[in-house]
Amino acid sequence: MSAREEDPLAAQQNVPASGYGEYGEPPPLPVARFGHGSRVPGWDEAVDLEKDPAEVPDPDSVEVPEELRAEIEAHMADYPDRHSAALPALAAAQRRYGWCSPEAIEQVACVMAVTPGYLDSVVTFYDMLETESVPPHSVYVCTNISCMLRGGYELLDHCKHRLGIGNKGVTPDGLFSLEEVECIGACSWAPAMMMNYDFHENLTNAKMDQVLDEYRKKGTQ
């Protein structure tokens, strides 16, 4: 039986009956696309030239807490180009408000003298910058190879059972969210997890329970 007869996809992609290629490799699979033909929604929407241009928020109209302003300005001083401070500045705002709300983004934009749209493009790119309100305690359990080999999936299952939620779920009391994640850079201390920005390594089910109990006592702090 020829490669074409074995693989119905070959006929759909007009692969020659003689084979797939010089080394017999299969053709690349088609890339999944959105219904309107693009991988990115809105690619075919024309720019609205009637809209006002994006503007940097007016410092006289945006109130920024002094502690947040000082932290953002300190981050800006660390870089020759202020745009490079976007990540630590947004992280500072998220620590204060719990997420990068439109108001938080406007405050950061005001201090950094950039447009909110510029910061919004950063927020929507990085997974750990939240675009919606989240619980005070985010549990990230690693299941990448080192953690997987040392019980990462079993640890994740235990955490699901203990919290009573599934992956990307939120506990009924609103204190915890749970997410299975890829490598968190703690391979030498696997299995590992993060609780917000805190690392917890060499975990067992008992250690996981201790961590959850500790953060539950903290409540919304």
Physical arrangement of strands within the biggest beta sheet:
2-1-3-4
The CATH top-level class label of the largest domain: Alpha Beta
CATH topology of the largest domain: the name is: Glutaredoxin
Instruction: Note the gap between the termini.
Output: 66 Å
> Which parts are unreliable, with pLDDT below 50 for 5 consecutive residues or more?
none
Based on DSSP secondary structure assignment, what is the total number of beta strands?
4
Mean pLDDT: 84
User: What is the CATH architecture descriptor of the largest domain?
Assistant: 3-Layer(aba) Sandwich
Q: Per DSSP, what share of the residues sits in E-state strands of 2 or more residues?
A: 5-15%
What's the helix count? 9
Secondary structure category: alpha+beta
* The CATH H-level homologous superfamily of the largest domain: Glutaredoxin
Q: Report Rg.
A: 24 Å
What is the helix fraction of residues, given as a range? 25-40%
Overall 3D shape: globular
Give, in order, the helices and strands: HHHHHHEHHEEEH
Topology:
Blueprint: H1 3-6, H2 8-12, H3 66-76, H4 86-97, H5 102-112, H6 116-123, E1 137-142, H7 145-149, H8 152-163, E2 176-181, E3 193-195, E4 198-200, H9 205-218
Parallel strand pairs: 1-2
Antiparallel strand pairs: 1-3, 3-4
Helix pairs in contact: 3-4, 3-5, 4-5, 5-6
